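Quick start: what a row looks like.
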Amino acid sequence: MRLRVIAGAWRGRRLRFPAGTTVRPTADRVRETLFNWLGERIEGARCLDLFAGTGMLGLEALSRGAGEVWFVERDRKLARHLGEQLRMLGGNGRVLCEDVDAFLRRTAESPFDIVFIDPPYATPVDAVIGGLAPVMAPDALLYLERAASDGLPESAALRWQKTGRAGAVRFGLARLAASSERLPSAGT
């Protein structure tokens, strides 16, 4: 499988990923929409790519100027290959081969500005969303991608900023409710 970086320093780079995995990379047009939404917020941001798979969300973020990206992927083959891609590109990041729930329970690192969540569609996300607060900066943004048939979760924990649909995919950008309540409202 070959995937293309859309924009930034690595624009047009085609990255090869191992065959025989069950990843479903985020489509180019969805990535383009997401990074248009993020705009200048990506510059220097500390990002977390959960259920990283090919890591294309995090790699795209680095290409567009993110300061650092941590990739969490439990599939050893994908994590190893993602680490090789990151070294080859010279990106500032860290690849962790572990389960997302275990990572969220144990991490005590400084908070992340942007969190990407694109799990296998059958994976429940409520517990993951519930475990994010300790790893997210106060004004952090969360990207979530789900099957269009499932839709995005309606949760009191999330405040959707933007949502979209592309074919069989629903995706959105949100803030955790606690962080959005700390932000001044528009016009103040």
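That is the whole record. Residues 2-182 form a domain with the Rossmann fold fold (CATH 3.40.50.150). The radius of gyration is 15 Å.
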